[in-house]
Design goal:
It is built from 4 helices and 4 strands, in the order βααββααβ. By secondary structure, the protein is α+β, with helices and mostly antiparallel strands. The radius of gyration is 15 Å and the shape is elongated.
Amino acid sequence: MPQCPPGSFSYTVRPGDNFWTLAWRFGTTPQAIARANPGVNSWSLRIGQTLCIPGWSPWVTPPQGRCPQGWEPYRIQPGDTLGSIAWERQTTVANLLRVNPVNPNNLRIGQIICVPAR
């Protein structure tokens, strides 16, 4: 497993991953992922391979370790969707995605996102 540089987190490759899909999922660029993983070819990733992804870890902390003013951390619970969270917090999915660079179809139980404060 590679030692990831500060400001990045380790990620285990899943089927269908490449630098473009990972960049979209984690709110970064394919070029930034390539720089964090010298010598790795985006189009020949192996399932189970570990990569370093620049940016914040969506499973550990909100972006830059804190939420914007007026927002607070929220831990994803079983059954949560961005739609249900948006409804609960009286906001929109688009507003949640503006603050949280996450794949709305791939939320994980325990993942922390930022939501409007109550």
